[in-house]
Amino acid sequence: RYVWYMHWLYCTGDKPLEKSIGKMFYAWSCAVFAAIGGLTFGYDIGAINGVKDMIGFRQTFNLSYADGNNSTSCEVDLEASSTLVLGLIVSILSIGAIPGVLSGGVLMDVTGRRTAIIVAAVVYTVGGTLQTGAVYLWMLYLGRFITGFGVGIIVTTIPVYLAELSPKKLRGGFVTIMGVNVMGGILLGFLVNLGTVNVTFGWRISLSVTVPIGLILSIGMLFLPESPRWLLKKRRNTRAEEVLTRVYGAENTKTVQQVLLEIQSSIPAKNSFVNVLREFLEWNVFYRVLVGMALQVMNRFSGQIVILYYSVTIFCSIGLPYYSSVILGVMNIIGTGLSVYTIDKLGRKPLLLLGTLGMFGSITLAGTLLLVFEVEDGGSQAVGYVVMVALCVFVFTYATAVGPVSWAMNSEIHSLTVRGFAVSLSTLSFWVSNLVAAQLTPILLASPLQTHGTFYVLAGVNLAGFLFVLLTLPETKGESLEGIEKLFAEPWLERVDLFYYLSCCCPWCERWRHYTVKQTHDNIGPIHATNVMADLVSPSMPTLPLNGDSYSCKMDPKIFKETSV
To answer: At what angle do helices 419-446 and 83-110 cross, to 10 degrees?
Structure first.
């Protein structure tokens, strides 16, 4: 590869892009700050998990709680509580997010990605202020609905903004930074609850943290650039080139021009509503929308919402202390931080396959332990700690794979013309699934299924998710946003090449791939083998000629794989 880097430098006069990726301080700064929007959603998950069980919260809104309830809120009897009201308090944010998602797709296409984020952050701040000062149940409902409306716009717009701003080799990591902030928000919510649980008005302190988060995001976004792809779509070419130059660096001028041409070639001459609708109804485009919606449904029903929204209830039912939920928050943020690196190294599809299998195994183990040792009926507390370890593995696997990858792929698989609307539909499925899961979870936990039966249901969902990923998704790692559209036109069997994707993780398979490279070298000669493998590694690089011989492998690098040499 070193030879090819030197050849690239010689042919283009440009520095190899990978050599300057580490110097993209401006791009990383924009991505890290914009991803603060992930705190808006993550913090609510962590905060409401404990707030709904605090004594002061229940007394303020006249919610029933079990006799003998203490300051740690670990004796809450879910059946004795107002289950419907508690479920609505948790899920009203998802109800508000649904119109937010639908309006967010239109808003970011009309006003721009950055402006939409600023508007959403202001709305989120207003909602957070209202629910913090609520004295009646309707005020709490209204505040959480407005907060959810802002969150719906934020989680729709920020992944698109990050994907459109980032270089293709860093896109997965940039989008995943938002996931790190979501998980960091969950951990922050757990920690704030832990410090305020013994305070009468502690629930107000926990909910008030939403206000500074919204203010920081709305003010900070004023200093970030607009998405270059949106600017080109609106024919603001000069400004788009300025943004791309700052993102890629002034030394990569030819790379900037190449990216500009690639984006411009994907934009239709007319962006009329009829043309957008016609493109949306094309099967290749509509199929990607369906895939994106299915990914988000899998994300929500995989079980993460059950574990994080109701971890306090679950841990208390098996005799574990209140603070056990904080451990899940730590595992969340560690796993998501790791995914920033692995998503662009291992790829999207291998992570999803390994993630769904890991979640299936860990949640099945937890359910079996609860059933066999009857932990829910006062069994051994030691087994309860083993269950907690299994749930930590479950949360870590979700945070490393399913959570960040589903958001990353949804921000990159859609074409530029319909991206705003398509992402809003995918995000809509996320919030509808979030709402349904939040409503069903307390019912399932209080039903004869109990906790172990609920875990078995989640195991079945993750097994179905593994099959869905295996049979429908291509690998999008390292592809430009415009090049991803071609991947979905590949034959179906190309997407199910399980050996190829597992070879990214299996040492034995990796050695076999090196053996095939050696065979290629022996069969067609060293220079020709170098050209073939270079096309596989980086098809955009020019072919190295030898003594006037312009041999080149012209086969599609996604079809001509190492496994077929």
So the answer is: 170
